[in-house]
Amino acid sequence: MKKRVLIVLIFLIGLGVGGFLFVEKFSPGESRGCVYSKNYNVKLIMPTSFGLLEQFALLPNGDIVMGDKGNNRVLLFRNNIFETVVTGDINASAVTALPDGHIAYLENNEVWLLNYETKEKKYLGKIPGDRYLQALGSDKQGNVYVGASRAGLFKFKDGKLEKIVESLPFSNLDSVQITDIAVGLDGIVYVAGFEKVFAVDPNGAVRLVTDDLVNEPVWVEVGPDGAVYINELSHGLQRFDPKTKQLSQLNITYQFYGMLALTADELFVHDTRGILFTLNPETNAVRPLYVNAGNDFAFAAGADNKVFFATPSLEPVLKQHIVELSSAGERTDLNNLEYAMIFSADVDRENRLNLLTSEGVVRLNRDGSIKTVPIRSEGRESPAIRNFAAGQNIWYGTATDFNEKIEIFSIDELGNAKFLPISFSPESFGAHTVDDARIDVALDGSLVLIVTARGSASQGPFIQRVYRANADGANLREIARLDSGRVAGMVDIAVDRDNNIFVLTMQGEKPNVGGSDSIYKIDKNNKVTEAVYICPGIDPESIDVDSAGNIWFGSTLGVFKATPKLLYW
Questions:
Q1: Chain CA centroid to CA 299, Å
Q2: pLDDT recorded at residue 453
Q3: Whole-angstrom distance between the N-terminal and C-terminal Cα of the chain?
Q4: Each residue's pLDDT tens digit, 331-389
Q5: Taxonomically, which superkingdom (predicted)?
Q6: What is the reported pLDDT for 486?
Q7: 40-45+293-564 carries CATH number 1.20.120.80
Q8: In terms of C-beta density within 10 A (0-12 exposed, 13-18 middle, 19 or more buried), how is residue 374 classed?
Q9: Potential cystine with 355: which of 22, 163, 362, 547 (Cβ 3.0-4.6 Å)?
Q10: In the chain, where does the domain assigned CATH 2.120.10.30 lie?
Q11: Alpha-carbon separation of residue 540 from 76, 270, 363, 476, 489 (angstroms)
Q12: Beta-carbon neighbour count of residue 261 at 10 Å?
């Protein structure tokens, strides 16, 4: 497998305060990649090579097949390129590979087999009744295992369907529970899902491996040596020994989603920021394979129909740099703007790009020169900056410890940081912990913020509050509450030339069912209207509004531009 996967770095790109709050929502109409708007023309400017990848499978010849759920397609990764082998009305979260080289996938809630070399496909079967198919797995004999709704586990053997377990004891059988399936060397089937992993023997006996996982998708993989790897975003990577029945935590530096065991000491993994890389679980050594740029926290729209964003980083082997993208899809890599970390980006009123980096504040002047300003904070440690925005000869930033405190501060052109009289604690919201904050600066110098907090130690509610304040931090006032029932997704904020606010929020309501990532417009009268609806799984990280009123945002599908229609609002 190592010979087949060559190193390649390809950069591709409520309730209101002081009155009633009315939130107007609309039903999805015409779709453009699962992004909708009745008031904006939405255009995909730069597609990414893949979206949110789900299950992986290793084919006998070393090729890798992946389920690209966000784009409703199955991808083949070979010879350093991606090839779409199946698309259409499919559940691309589920895919597996058979010993004879066929790919098993789900189409119209049925299991199909594909010979990807000849493009011939064959119907394998379906589960009787109204069960929805969720995940696939296979063994060395060519049997195909299917995880279905109500946590059922089934097997296709010699083309015939067998029921293994009617209902595995997951917590909530009324929603999606099974997210991954892997088969051990001894024939034990490992089924991973929300909060739990089970081991099922060939006779259908069920044994709990662990139930101490996050209420989110969980991934499982069996290595060539029989070791079972379990991964989710809360605990990270763990390893289960089938012989001793012991589960051990691995000290992994990196977070990732799905995974595939190439050898006993090398995993192929997917960082949701858009990086595919190999990882040695013992040494933490990494080898980047493919970088898919376009969805990053550092994201800023310019005044000349351009947007800037950072490529993802993979420390210590891969730094970040800035990409400039025009509305025509023309891409330019600004390799002179390369840093170990680029945390945030903004374009000031003079149309200069400003970056918050590991070296301090960086400004790209109109003449092409670069100014770097190290940040200093007298009398205390420098704040752990998460986000910033450019004002007139001043920058503003947010800092959070994701627990007890969110603070807002300013940075002058000498790099001196001054904390403003704005801070948030769990008590500010009656919450369990604070989470994060984003900031922008209006043309009149005033500030707008979105601040989030976690209502409980588990998955919700997610508190999302929007504020305005004066440039010196005085007169802080809450203008909108966009709280969600579920903790997930990202938030961001931008203010346009007319002082309207646009916020990216997560709107999921159920603890283990993802919701949309909606962009809302909040006008000067604090009326809240949904501007752009973004389907679950597309996961935008940032938004910005240019001087013409266009909304730009990145996502796992690529970079979008939403242009206002002539008559709207």
A1: 15
A2: 95
A3: 55
A4: 999 999 999 999 999 999 999 999 999 999 999 999 999 999 999 877 666 667 889 99
A5: Bacteria
A6: 76
A7: no
A8: exposed
A9: 362
A10: 40-45+293-564, 52-291
A11: 24, 17, 25, 28, 8
A12: 22
The two beta strands, 417-424 and 433-441, are unpaired
pTM of the predicted protein model: 0.83
Place of tokens 């752009």: 532
7-44 burial: b if 16+ Cβ within 10 Å, else e: eeeebbbeebeeeebebeeeeeeeeebbbbbbbbebbb
Q: What is the pLDDT of residues 91-102, one digit of tens each?
A: 888 999 999 999
- CA dihedral in degrees (474, 478, 482, 487; nearest 10)? 50
Average pLDDT over residues 27-55: 78
Q: State the Cα–Cα distance between residues 244 and 227, nearest whole angstrom.
A: 11
Cis peptide upstream of residue 28 (ω within 30 degrees of 0): no
The candidate with the shortest Cα–Cα distance to 247, out of 200, 196, 201, 283, is 196
Which pLDDT does position 373 carry in this prediction? 96
Beta partners for residue 220, in sequence order: 230
- Strand 528-534 and strand 23-24: the pairing is parallel
Residue with token string 């390649």? 8
Looking at CATH, the fold of the domain delimited by 52-291 is given as Neuraminidase (2.120.10)
Q: Which residue has the tokens 């159920």?
A: 510
What is the spatial distance between Cα 329 and Cα 82, in angstroms, rounded to a whole number?
A: 20
